[in-house]
Amino acid sequence: MALLIGDTAPDFEVDSTEGSIKFHDYIDGSWAVLFSHPADFTPVCTTELGYTAKLKSDFAKRNVKVLGVSVDPLDDHERWSKDIEETQGTALNFPLIADPGRVVASLYDMIHPNADNTFTVRSVFIIGPDKKIKATFAYPASSGRNFDEILRLIDSLQLTAKHQVATPVNWKSGEDVIIVPSVSDEEAKKKFPDGWKAVKPYLRLVPQPKD
């Protein structure tokens, strides 16, 4: 069965470019992004991993650990990492998991047989400190992902996990948010004493909480 939002992210122990990793121990206390790419020495994947490396400080300030995974062996990863640094201008600075036995790919349903029965698609799993899956999506091999959108989604997830708010369409950090319908007006007055804009009784906009 496919993994769903709210499921516990499966644990695993694997080799990576940064040594052996036991997943749950590695991400303990942090958020995590686990993402797959179809194969080493391929053009779209090269651009994705290079860009992800450039976002290291952006992920770090959000307390997010990033892990890449493919079904290629570790020695290929190590040779390919030199190409990534040469062509993208940034060295690989997060673990790239070697999964030639398809252990992780199988646990997370990263291989979609109707697309390709050998290589993983571009799966993304965002996982919270409680090790629960908070969001997941998949792209085909031909389409590179938007990692700025992944950061935006993490901002939303972290904000809504802390406050009783939701984020509207195309929301970006710093913009108004929505008071969730389960919070009554009386409760909202306590949580948001400066008030809100009620477009409809069920659509109440309020400035993004600061803490």
Which keywords apply here?
single chain, 211 residues, alpha+beta, seven-stranded mixed beta sheet, four-stranded antiparallel beta sheet
Supply the helix-strand structural class: alpha+beta
What's the pLDDT, averaged over the residues? 95
Q: Helix count? A: 7
How would you characterize the largest beta sheet?
7 strands, mixed
Secondary structure tally: strands: 11
Supply Rg: 19 Å
Describe what this molecule looks like in 3D:
By secondary structure, the protein is α+β, with helices and mostly antiparallel strands. Helices cover 31% and strands 23% of the residues. It has 7 helices and 11 strands. It has helices at 23-26, 43-54, 56-61, 74-88, 103-107, 147-162, 185-191; strands at 13-16, 21-22, 31-36, 64-70, 96-98, 122-127, 133-139, 165-166, 177-179, 197-200, 203-206. A 7-stranded mixed β-sheet has the order 2-1-5-4-3-6-7. Strand 6 and strand 7 (133-139) form a beta hairpin. The longest helix is centred in the last third of the chain and has 16 residues, at 147-162. It is elongated, with a radius of gyration of 19 Å. 26% of the residues are buried. The model has no long low-confidence stretch (mean pLDDT 95).
